[in-house]
Design a protein that fits this description.
Elements (H helix, E strand, L loop, with lengths): L2 E7 L2 E7 L5 H8 L18 E4 L2 E4 L12 E3 L13 H8 L9 H14 L5 H7 L10 H19 L1
Parallel strand pairs: 1-5
Antiparallel strand pairs: 1-2, 3-4, 3-5
Helix pairs in contact: 2-5
């Protein structure tokens, strides 16, 4: 049995018949070929699969694709500007060495975007608390926090 879903991903409308048990992360990776969202643990423990659903950070490994029916989804591929200019978080991770192996980076960036959406000028403690559900296996947290601080400052420049 398949269920028809309609979901907008990175601004593009999509309609597919999917199995009711298909995880959203697998829909993104296998059906839409958006492989920036990573599968790390399948239990929502690591945060590598974090995306935005209707503007809120969501771990896509524990959400079914059918639950995203009618939703707006943003993945790491959709966070940059349409002209290819990097999002301040992507730039921050590059400039402040916030990535090592890069496996956790998409989920970290999507979670950090949610943090900055809710608090334009977070403290180091607020950033660390906000990223609590995302694990970096390379223990790069110091530079990840610096990357988020860089992005917050850059985003503040744009709004001033």
């Amino acid at each position: 049995m398949s269920i028809r879903i309609n979901v907008t991903v990175n601004g593009v409308a999509n309609s597919h018949d999917v199995e009711p048990r298909l995880l959203l992360v697998n829909y993104l990776r296998d059906v839409l070929r958006l492989t920036g969202t990573h599968v790390g643990c399948d239990t929502s423990s690591c945060g590598a699969c974090t995306i935005h659903v209707n503007g809120k950070a969501t771990k896509s490994c524990t959400m079914l694709a059918v639950q995203a029916d009618g939703c707006e989804v943003t993945t790491i591929e959709g966070i940059a500007a349409s002209d290819g200019e990097l999002h301040p978080l992507q730039e921050g991770f590059r400039e402040c060495h916030g990535l090592q192996c890069g496996f956790c980076t998409p989920g970290m960036i999507m979670t950090a975007a949610d943090i900055l959406q809710n608090c334009a000028d977070p403290t180091e403690e607020e950033i660390r608390a906000g990223l609590e559900g995302n694990f970096c296996r390379c223990t790069g947290y110091h530079n990840i926090v610096k990357s988020v601080q860089y992005a917050a400052a850059k985003m503040k420049e744009v709004t001033v």
